[in-house]
């Protein structure tokens, strides 16, 4: 019988799907989100909505030193890329990369997990539509899993710490289909890097482009598009 698990929840569609998958697998889901100087609070509001909708056992928002995450257009340094083609999304590391973000997030999650006696971490990284971020690659997840079992008491004693990345080899359309099967309400999520003051997606940033392609591949209308039209 699965026990407690710590799930990173950003408010986007990938992490919402991962939370639903962990719950479906029988885990007691303890969600964690981070305030790290991102351009808007909308994603944290979305994370709260998602966690309530999917009945997470707990949800905490951790405040981090924003200075540690400077140098990214997601934290206000430079312009958000817009209008790039699908082919361009996989070329190089974009300005929206946040320095060591997933490494820091997983490290916090690991500490929380050990504190509650959990050996399971869940993260919604994806190696298919990952926009060039180095901390979304399978090699990073594998390396962190190894490190987690070397750096913690529970890891040394059991060797059982696992970092679950169930979306890693799925396309965005497959992710959406899986989430719908599990009852995810994607109308509660936020994906846009530069939404309007009313939360409306810009439709032009990398994340909006990938989201739109995903819903197109799934053959389903994006509830955010419907709501904002």
Task: Please describe the topology of this protein.
Elements: E1 4-8, H1 13-24, E2 28-35, H2 42-53, E3 58-63, H3 86-89, H4 101-115, E4 120-122, H5 138-151, H6 153-158, E5 162-164, H7 172-181, H8 206-218, H9 223-228
Count the domains.
1
Please, what is the oligomeric state? single chain
Can you tell me the CATH architecture? 3-Layer(aba) Sandwich
Secondary-structure element order, N to C: EHEHEHHEHHEHHH
The N- and C-terminal alpha carbons lie at a distance of 44 Å
Biggest β-sheet: strands ordered side by side in the sheet: 3-2-1-4-5
Overall 3D geometry?
globular
Estimate the helix proportion, in percent: 40-55%
User: Could you list the spans in which at least 5 consecutive residues all have pLDDT below 50?
Assistant: none
Q: What do the pLDDT scores average to?
A: 90
Features:
9 helices, globular, Rossmann fold, 229 residues, 11% strand, alpha/beta, five-stranded parallel sheet
How would you briefly describe this protein structure?
This protein has nine helices and five strands. By secondary structure, it is of the alpha/beta class.
3D architecture notes:
This protein is α/β, with parallel strands linked by helices. It has one domain: HUPs (Rossmann fold), CATH 3.40.50. It is built from nine helices and five strands. The chain has helices spanning 13-24, 42-53, 86-89, 101-115, 138-151, 153-158, 172-181, 206-218, 223-228; strands at 4-8, 28-35, 58-63, 120-122, 162-164. The protein has a five-stranded parallel β-sheet, with helices on both faces. Helix 1 links the parallel strand 1 (4-8) and strand 2.
């Amino acid at each position: 019988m699965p026990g407690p698990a710590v799930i990173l929840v950003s408010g986007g569609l990938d992490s919402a799907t991962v939370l639903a998958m962990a719950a479906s697998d029988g885990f007691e889901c303890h969600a964690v989100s981070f305030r790290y100087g991102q351009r808007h609070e909308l994603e944290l509001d979305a994370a709260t909505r998602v966690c309530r909708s999917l009945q997470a056992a707990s949800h905490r928002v951790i405040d981090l030193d924003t200075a540690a995450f400077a140098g990214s257009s997601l934290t206000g340094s430079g312009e958000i890329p817009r209008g790039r083609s699908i082919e361009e999304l996989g070329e190089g590391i974009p300005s929206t990369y946040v320095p060591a973000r997933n490494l820091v997030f997983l490290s916090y999650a690991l500490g929380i997990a050990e504190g509650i006696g959990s050996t399971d971490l869940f993260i919604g990284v994806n190696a298919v539509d990952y926009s060039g971020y180095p901390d979304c690659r399978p090699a990073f997840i594998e390396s962190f899993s190894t490190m987690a079992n070397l750096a913690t008491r529970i890891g040394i004693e059991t060797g059982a710490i696992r970092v679950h990345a169930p979306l890693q080899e799925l396309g965005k359309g497959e992710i959406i289909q899986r989430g719908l099967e599990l009852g995810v309400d994607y109308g509660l999520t936020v994906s846009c890097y530069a939404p309007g003051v009313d939360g409306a997606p810009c439709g032009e940033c990398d994340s909006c482009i990938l989201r739109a392609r995903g819903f197109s591949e799934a053959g389903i209308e994006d509830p955010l598009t419907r709501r904002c039209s």
